[in-house]
Design brief:
By secondary structure, the protein is mainly alpha-helical. The chain is built from 27 helices and five strands. The strands form two sheets. The protein has a three-stranded mixed sheet. It has a two-stranded antiparallel ribbon with strand order 4-5. Helix 9 packs across helix 11 and helix 14 runs antiparallel to helix 16. The longest helix has 27 residues. The two termini are about 35 Å apart.
């Protein structure tokens, strides 16, 4: 039997091979000497795909760290071009170095690299007993889902695969084999480590899992596998199955005749790139099975949930996100490698100053390694809460935990998520008052001082500024193009200033949006949101933005702008009835479990719900899984924040 230390050494050697071998393959007998990058780029125009990245870097070491060089990915390149220089372009003083990243080879390298990274985790002491036949069927069905993705979003994928003809059945068979081989390897590694993995969920913010060049995330397929397996081994309620099939069928029928496209951008892998009946059908079924698989995975490892280990992993990830973000912003090559190996939805920021302010003295949000500064700010906020709970509830008063506050506080400052900061101060301060059991007078004075400081922080003038109560209404009409107003905007315009109750309610929403700096974004959503009666009540299907961004023309925006509200996103996906039922279900679960709820759990739920009102976090796979895990644990783990024996 091979010694465990030798196995570990072999694994580290393989890691180095994963990192260097793909970028060093070249014909070293051709006597071709790479040239330095200058304004004369004729050498790289003539010798495309002949110089490996390693050869290029040896000759051009300055491209590793100088910020006017940018490494880009050329997905539509041949297999032989992988890891080689596919071209160099100069735009003003900036140089863009295209690396051949053939989508097929990239998918193989990324998939097996992730499986290999997971293999470093400790195996279960007792292996899970999976029915082999149902396990194999689950793998086949999960892989088949990816093929239906390719088919339903063919306009996106035909630009990503070199010389693959998506009108031929061979293409889909080949891609099925490709995905199946990766999924089978990864799932079988995971099934031996489910006990460890549950506490490593924070690593989804680091190993994001989006295949480069694809609108596909490996973790979607993994949890779909668990969902399919759960369905095969369990007796699901007929009402649930018929309910899912019925609403999916209605969404699909509603989209017949529609054919919009959507660029996934920073939510790549967790949204559809097309709005048509085929994509709505597969993404709807996938979403429900994914959710079922997520729940099954949590239940499978319920007894192995360890709050302290989970928090320690969050601390490590927060440190890694900050460090990799800073290094990536200062070293173009590292930014490229981060994107490739960690499966980022969007390449890390090139802004190398996380302390930057604009000309008005406002702190500029810095997203660093992540796709969204806002969602990363929420991650740091949750970590601060968890460390606080460990110290005050778990009695972990070591210097390590006190010092570890530095990482999430620094990350939160960089992200400039002021809402998270205010919620942290409000929630943790109120719990501290209860913990210290101060007398009523001191408690009352402390609360008054806090709210006074909060008003000063927000700005007292905003409470008397008329625009703050009309901001969303004004912005929605500003973005609307004449004669093409959305049905939702028409509804608001018909009731605003005519229906007193509606006007007061909408003014409150506008004021909240103004305070949270969401007036423009929510107004833009209203200008675009053009539902029919069915879509208004039941939505247009989960993870579908194509119709929203293509159906109604609005005045030009400075960049791609999300709704910046998970509630609005889910209104789009599931309609008014769907969102209402979700809130009712949450309230019912809290009431049903009130005997195991304490102030820490109430605060966590409030923290999550409030952030979902003003952020897009549920549109990011990592945040979706993290929030789902927290909601699951507060309802299923009685002593989650108590000291473990």
């Amino acid at each position: 039997m091979i010694d465990s230390k030798k196995i570990l050494n072999i694994k580290f050697i393989l890691v180095l091979l994963f990192l260097f071998l793909p970028w060093s393959i070249s014909d070293y007998t051709d006597n071709l000497e790479p040239e330095r990058v200058t304004s004369d780029l004729s050498f790289y125009e003539i010798n495309t795909c002949k110089v490996s990245l390693i050869e290029f870097l040896i000759k051009n070491k300055n491209t590793i760290y100088q910020d006017h060089y940018h490494f880009t990915l050329n997905h539509y390149s041949s297999v032989g071009c992988f890891g080689k220089i596919a071209g160099v372009t100069q735009l003003n003083h900036e140089f863009y170095i295209a690396i051949g990243t053939n989508t097929i080879i990239s998918t193989l390298v990324q998939g097996y690299f992730l499986a290999f990274a997971i293999s470093f985790l400790k195996k279960n002491k007792k292996n899970n007993t999976f029915n082999n036949f149902k396990h194999q069927i689950s793998l086949l069905i999960s892989s088949l889902f990816s093929i239906i993705f390719f088919y339903s979003e063919v306009r996106f994928y035909e630009k990503q695969f070199y010389l693959l003809d998506f009108s031929k059945s061979f293409t889909y068979i080949f891609l099925f084999i490709l995905v199946y081989s990766i999924l089978k390897t990864t799932v079988e590694v995971i099934n031996f480590r489910t006990d460890s993995l549950i506490n490593f969920i924070p690593f989804l913010f680091l190993f994001i899992g989006a295949f480069t060049g694809l609108n596909l995330n490996i973790f979607i397929l993994i949890f779909v596998y668990f969902g399919v397996y759960k369905i095969l081994i369990s007796r699901f309620s007929s009402l649930k199955i018929y309910g899912v099939l019925t609403i999916t069928l209605l969404w699909t029928i509603n989209a017949v005749g529609e054919n919009y496209t959507f660029k996934p951008d920073k939510i790549r892998g967790f949204t559809s790139s097309a709005f048509n009946y085929r994509s709505i059908f597969i993404w709807s079924i996938t979403f429900f099975i994914f959710a079922a698989g997520l729940h099954y995975f949590f239940k499978l490892s319920l007894k192995k949930i360890n709050f302290e280990k989970f928090t320690n992993n969050m601390i490590f990830v927060s440190f890694s996100l900050i460090v990799l973000g800073i290094i990536g912003a200062n070293f173009p090559l590292i930014n490229f490698l981060n994107y490739f190996y960690f499966g980022q939805e969007k390449m890390g920021t090139t802004s190398n100053n996380p302390f930057q302010f604009d000309e008005w003295g406002e702190k500029i949000a810095w997203r660093g390694f992540t796709s969204s500064a806002e969602s990363s700010g929420e991650f740091y906020g949750i970590l601060i809460i968890f460390i606080y709970f460990l110290i005050f509830n778990g009695k972990k008063e070591s210097v390590y935990y006190k010092l570890s506050f530095a990482f999430p506080f620094l990350g939160l400052y960089f992200s400039n998520n002021r809402t998270v900061f205010i919620l942290l101060v409000l929630g943790l301060f109120s719990m501290l008052l209860k913990k210290k059991k101060l007398n009523t007078t001191i408690t009352f004075l402390s609360i008054c001082i806090f709210f006074y400081m909060l008003v000063v922080y927000i700005g007292s003038d905003k409470f008397t500024y008329v625009y703050s109560y009309q901001s969303v209404f004004i912005q929605s009409n500003n973005y609307s193009v004449a004669n093409t107003s959305s049905t939702f905007l028409n509804l608001i315009n018909s009731e605003y200033n005519k229906n007193l109750v509606f006007t007061i309610f909408f003014n409150i929403i506008s004021f909240i949006g103004y305070i949270l700096n969401r007036s423009e974004l929510w107004g833009l959503f209203i200008a675009r949101y053009n539902p029919n009666i069915f879509e208004y009540l039941f939505g247009s299907g989960p993870l579908q933005f194509g119709q929203l961004y293509s159906d109604i023309q609005v005045n030009q925006t400075s960049s791609f702008l999300m709704p910046h509200s998970s509630v609005l996103s889910y209104l789009l996906f599931f309609g008014l009835i769907g969102v209402t039922l979700l809130f009712i279900f949450l309230i019912f679960k809290i009431y049903k479990n009130k005997n195991i709820f304490n102030k820490e759990k109430y605060f966590l739920v409030f923290f999550i719900v409030f952030n979902l009102i003003k952020s897009d976090s549920l549109n990011y796979l990592s945040s979706f899984v993290l929030y789902s895990f927290i909601i699951f644990t507060v309802f299923n783990v009685r002593d989650l924040f108590s000291r473990r024996k």
